[in-house]
Structure formats: C-alpha cells, structure tokens
Amino acid sequence: MSRGEALTDEDRAGWLEALRDHETAQPPAGESPHLVMTCSALKRHYRDVLREGGAHAGDLRIRFVFLDAPEEVLTRRAAARKGHYAGANLVHSQFVALERPGPDEKDVVTVDVDRPIEDTVRDVIVSVKGTMMQDDGAYLRLN
C-alpha cells in the first residue's frame, strides 16, 4: 500500500482470518465485555469472515459501522493526511472494491461521515449504544 498498490482478496485473507480468530480469543477487559476492532471490511465476503467468529463463539455478536462518504470527500481527506502510508491514490481502488452493505445485513449501521467529525463521532456512539441495548440490554460506556 505504501507503494500505491491496493491489496487483493488474497492479501487480505490471512489478516481477516486473524481478526476473526482474535474476536474469540479476547477475554473481557475491565468493566465491559465488549471488543471494538476497526478495519475496512470493504466486501460482504470480508464481513462474512468476521461474522464467523461470532458464529463459533456462542453469544458473541458482531456488529459493523459503515462509515459512508463520497469518494471525492475521502480522496480529499486522504490527500490532507501527513505521514500516512496509504496515499490518496488508493481511495479509488477501495471504491472499486467496495460492496456497500445490503439491506439484509441487519448487523450493519450506516453513518454519514461527510460532515464535521464531532457529528460523526456522536452518531457512531449513539448507533453503537442503540444496537447494544437492542441486542440484550448491554450498555457500553463511551465518554
């Protein structure tokens, strides 16, 4: 990626499997039994690999937050980053690979990120808390 080359499905396979395995290997820490991981699960297949961790772990529920913005917005933001290994030239390849979550993917919350970061963060927190409350009354403390 630092050379401006997008990752392939084969490049991502081992990484996604490691994340899936990490989901079930992590004991609850502190007061919350919740684990938050971030990755760009651009394709449904990638999200399905991560879902496998929950399917094999009993009561582990996997949820996704899809941060949605137009390609131009993300290209502009990537170009403004300093010292990041992935340049703005990779944004287009990610949009080519992107499979937006389908209406049947009930475990995905979509949040518009083409606005101030404070609004985005607030909506992500509200969405995550709402999803967790909906699941089983669990509550995640995010300050």
TrEMBL record:
The keyword Transferase applies. One of its GO terms (cellular component) is cytoplasm. Keywords: ATP-binding, Kinase, Nucleotide-binding, Transferase. InterPro entries: P-loop_NTPase (IPR027417), Therm_gnt_kin (IPR006001). Its EC number is 2.7.1.12. GO terms for molecular function: ATP binding; gluconokinase activity. Pathway: Carbohydrate acid metabolism; D-gluconate degradation. Belongs to the gluconokinase GntK/GntV family. This is Gluconokinase. It comes from Podospora appendiculata.
